[in-house]
Amino acid sequence: MPQLDPAPALLLIDLQQGIRDLDRPRNNPQAEQRIGQLLAYWRAHEWPRVHIRHVSRQADSVFAPGQPGALFQEALAPMAEEPVFDKNVTDAFCHSGLERWLHVRGIRRLVIVGVASENSVEATARSASCLGFAVQVVADACYTFAKSDYCGRPRSAEEVHDMAMANLRDEYAEVLATSALLGCARA
C-alpha cells in the first residue's frame, strides 16, 4: 500500500498580544476570526499545528520575554500538545529547528497564516518554498499595517498586504482565501 502524504501543517505566525494591540491602521479586521476557523478545523482533524512566536532581543520591545505583548492572543494560543517555535528574525525557519521538525514528521505541505503579511508571513513563505515545501498562504487570514514605501509615499495596509500576496503568488506559494482552502479541504 503506498504511503499517504501527511496532512499539511498549519503555521500560525506571531499571533501575540503585542501585535494585536498596535494602534495603527490595518487590513483584514476579520483575520483573527478566520485564523480561529482554520485552527479549529485543523484541531478537529488532528492535523499538525505549529505556532511561531516572535521573541525580541531588545529589552524594551513589547515582544521581549516577560512582557505581556509577547504572550499569545488567548483565542489563538497553542494547546499543550502543539509545538511552539521561537524566532527573533522575520523568517520562522532561521535558527529555529522548524525545518527539522517538519522533515522528521514527513510534512511537505504548509498552510501559513498570521502577521505581518509583508514581514514574517512573506519571509517564512519564501524560505519554505526555497526549502522545497509546497506552500499555501491564506490571504484573508493574514494582515498588516499601513506604512510608507521606499520613496516615503504613504501606503494603506491593504496596499502593503496586496503587494506581499502578489510577491508570493505563483512563485513561492499558492495564495487563496479561507473559504477556498476549507472548500478544498472538505472535498
TrEMBL record:
Domain Isochorismatase-like: 9-178
UniProtKB keywords: Hydrolase
Keyword flag Cell cycle: no
EC number, UniProt record: 3.-.-.-
A GO molecular-function descriptor: hydrolase activity
Entries under InterPro entries matching the protein: Isochorismatase-like_dom, Isochorismatase-like_hydrls, Isochorismatase-like_sf
CDD domains, sorted: nicotinamidase_related (cd01014)
Keyword Transcription regulation listed: no
Annotated protein name in UniProt: Cysteine hydrolase family protein
Organism: Pseudomonas zhanjiangensis
Source lineage: Bacteria, Pseudomonadati, Pseudomonadota, Gammaproteobacteria, Pseudomonadales
